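Spend some time on the protein that follows and explain the fold to me:
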Amino acid sequence: MTALKVTALVLTAIVLVPSGAHLLELPAKMALDRAAYFTVQQIYAGWSLFGVPIVAAIGANVLLSARLRARDPAAARWAMAAAGLMAASLGVFFAWTFPANRATGNWTLMPDAWEGLRRAWEYSHAANAGIVLAALVACAIAASRSGNRRPDGLARRASAGQECRP
């Protein structure tokens, strides 16, 4: 179980790295003119590979939730919340970021309405930074809550000095 907790945490944290980078870049990138913005956008070639840890983080958190369900239902709900938030980040990506990428040919074509596409792209990434941070917090709560709890409550009674009969 420890390996699964660490895996879920690490995968979720890995997804926060590019999300956080986008958030921190936002003020400077919004100030760029058209030519400079399109030049800077080329640094993201290949970033589609970050879809792999997103899907893996969703899977790890779902699996963690399933494994925790009997032992600690509250921790299981936190893990499922982390998975749901990671899935929501994909929803934001496909609703706002991906259409901007398509309309600009991954920022190689300069349409006249580029500023609206830039706003959608930048602010959807900023929103995802918050969503992924919330997912990381939920995953951390799930991982830290779920110690050696047992569904019958024997461990809690034992730590309280009460008799533990099955």
